[in-house]
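Handout, page 2. Input:
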Amino acid sequence: MKFSQLFTKTSKTAVSDADSINAKLLTQAGFITKQMAGVYVFLPLGLRVLNKIENTIREEMNKIGGNEVLMPTLTLEENYEITGRDKTLTDVFYRTSGAGESKIVLNPTHEEIVTPLVQKFVFSYQDLPKSVYQFQTKFRNEARAKSGLLRGREFRMKDMYSFHADEKDLDAYYEEVTKAYFRVYDRLGLGNGRTILTYASGGAFSKYSHEYQTLSSIGEDTIYICEKCQVAVNKEIADEQNVCPKCGNKDLKEEKAIEVGNIFKLMDKFTGPFKFLYQNEKGEQQVAQMGCYGIGPSRIMGTIVEVYNDEKGIIWPESVAPYKVHLMSLGKEEESKKEAEKIYQELSQKNIEVLFDDRGNSSAGEKLADADLIGLPYRVVVSKKTMEKGGVEVKKRNEENVEIIKAKDLIKILS
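Output:
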C-alpha cells in the first residue's frame, strides 16, 4: 500500500475526549475514528489489524473442532423471554420493531440464538459433542462507554458455544479451550505472563467461570495473583475467598488488569429452557450440557496498544501489525525516489507487507514521526545519505540502533 493511496491521515494532536492511550494513539495514527460514544469506524489500517487478530483466533478455534457460522444481528425478543433474559438484559438491549409490530432486539450476546440453532441438528448422543463459533458485531447500551475500544456500545466478539452429552465431556472440552485461548494470547503478543487465567463468579450455574486478564494499569478489574500457580482471583470473589483456588495460598499479589476473554460452563442454563434434548445410549431423553467461550477482537486490539506503546506512538507486535515494513524515501533526489519505488515493488512481489510513504510534499521529520506513531515493526529509509553509505537504513520500532544494509539483502532480513 502506498501512503498516497490512503484516504486517511495522521494527526499531531489527540482528540479532546480521548480518555485512554488506545483511544488517543489509534485515532491519531489513523486506525479508527469515533462515530459516537462507544462506536468507532475501523479505517484501512485498523481493519487490517482487526482482521489479523480474528484470523489468529479463527485458526485456534478450528484446531479444536470449532465450526464457524454467522448468526444474525437481529432477533425476536421472544427468544430472550424463553430464558427470562428479556428482563435481566433489559438495560443493555437496543430494541426496535419489525413488520406487524414484532419486538426485535439487536443481539448483545447469542446464547438464545445458538441453542435452538444447534438443537435443530442434534437428535442422539451420536450427534454430540458439537462446537460452533462466530465473529459478530454485538450491541450493548453501556451506561458509560469509555476507554476507546475497551468498553464500547458496538464491538466485535468471537463467541463459541459447545454442546455435550454430559458434564464429563464438557469438562474435557473446557480444558481444550483453556489451552487454545493461551495459544491465542501468545500469538497476539499478550503471552509470557502478561495474561493470567483468573477465577471469577460462575453465577447460578457453576462454582467458577474463568476470565483471561491482561495486566495493565488502565484495567477496570482488580485481580489477586498467585505467583506460585500463575492464576488469579477476581476481586469480586476474592472478597469472599481471598485464597488461590488451586493451592490455597493466601499470599496473593494485587494487580489491575483488562479482561480480554472469558469462558463459562453453562451446563443446562440455556438448553433446559429451550428443551434441548437428545437420546442417550439407553434411548432415554437427556438435556444437553453447554459451554460458552468469548474473546473480543476489538477489545484485544485496544489492549495491545495499551501494552505496547511509548512516547512516540504504537509498537505493534509483528503478528498483528497492519504491515511489516514502513518504507520511505527522504529528500527530493530522484535517484533515491526511484530506489525506494524499486524496493517497494520487490517487497510486494515477495509478499512482504509494506506501507510505502511516497508522499512528495512531506518533510523528513513528518515522515519519521508518522512511522513512529503508526508503529510498524520495521522502518526502512532510502535517502541520498543512505545510498552514499551503500544501501538503506533499517530500524526496528522497538529498538534504538540503526543499521545500513545493502538493498539486495533487505528481502533476506525481512523474510
